[in-house]
């Protein structure tokens, strides 16, 4: 089964064309289990479209907005989604012949299959970096979104009680890792390769205090991230 993505013809034809070309340029030759496969495309004066693989469950936003599906999305599934997403980004940044920067990763742009495996779509704002060029890219993502969890001072107690020790350790370690990615100084942010390695390196360290006592300040720590 495949999915067609039409490129509309309207007053923004020039920007739509640039996005269409960016998407093709970024996806041609990419083969990764966590990146949506591009099967083909058509481009002419009247219309253009891309042919993608169909990812059954739709976006992570759609799943989280459905109370029943969100309840079924336990920590193991969520952690697997994060690992799949970082695996895709690590591949794009470090293993492609020319690095690819997606520039619009959000829950709307993470698709889930029937096994809750993450797939990255929508490369219309992506930039393929040239080896001899600057790595600076302008902001191109979804404007006006801030994850509400970042604004809370204590992690929500929303996980099921089984295997809490292991789950608690993973939740805290993953959240601390996420905060290092938000560091104001880019030199202290980990690469996606480092993030993926940290997520797959085994069981994290035991918690220094009970899970219910861990605050936002504990997660941010001393404000220093990972250096390469």
TrEMBL record:
EC number(s) given by UniProt: 2.7.11.1
A Pfam family assignment: Pkinase
Keywords tagged on the record: ATP-binding, Kinase, Nucleotide-binding, Serine/threonine-protein kinase, Transferase
Known catalytic reactions: L-seryl-[protein] + ATP = O-phospho-L-seryl-[protein] + ADP + H(+); L-threonyl-[protein] + ATP = O-phospho-L-threonyl-[protein] + ADP + H(+)
Top-level taxon: Eukaryota
First-tier enzyme category under EC: transferase
Domain Protein kinase: 1-228
Species, as recorded: Rubroshorea leprosula
Protein name: non-specific serine/threonine protein kinase
GO MF: ATP binding; protein serine/threonine kinase activity
């Amino acid at each position: 089964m495949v999915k067609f993505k039409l490129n509309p013809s309207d007053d923004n034809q020039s920007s739509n064309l640039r996005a269409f070309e960016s998407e093709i340029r970024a996806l041609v030759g990419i083969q990764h289990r966590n990146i949506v496969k591009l099967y083909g495309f058509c481009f002419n004066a009247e219309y253009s479209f891309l042919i993608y693989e169909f990812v059954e469950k739709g976006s992570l936003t759609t799943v989280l907005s459905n109370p029943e599906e969100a309840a079924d999305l336990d920590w193991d599934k969520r952690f697997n989604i994060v690992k799949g997403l970082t695996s895709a980004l690590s591949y794009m940044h470090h293993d492609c012949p020319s690095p690819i920067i997606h520039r619009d990763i959000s829950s709307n742009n993470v698709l889930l299959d029937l096994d809750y495996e993450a797939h990255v779509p929508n490369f219309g704002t992506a930039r393929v970096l040239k080896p001899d060029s600057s790595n600076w890219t302008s902001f191109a993502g979804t404007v006006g979104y801030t994850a509400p969890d970042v604004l809370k001072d204590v992690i929500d107690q929303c996980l099921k009680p089984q295997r809490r020790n292991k789950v608690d350790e993973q939740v805290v370690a993953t959240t601390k890792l996420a905060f290092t990615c938000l560091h104001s100084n880019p030199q202290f942010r980990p690469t996606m390769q480092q993030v993926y390695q940290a997520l797959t390196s085994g069981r994290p360290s035991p918690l220094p205090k009970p899970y219910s006592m861990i605050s936002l300040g504990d997660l941010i720590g001393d404000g220093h991230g990972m250096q390469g």
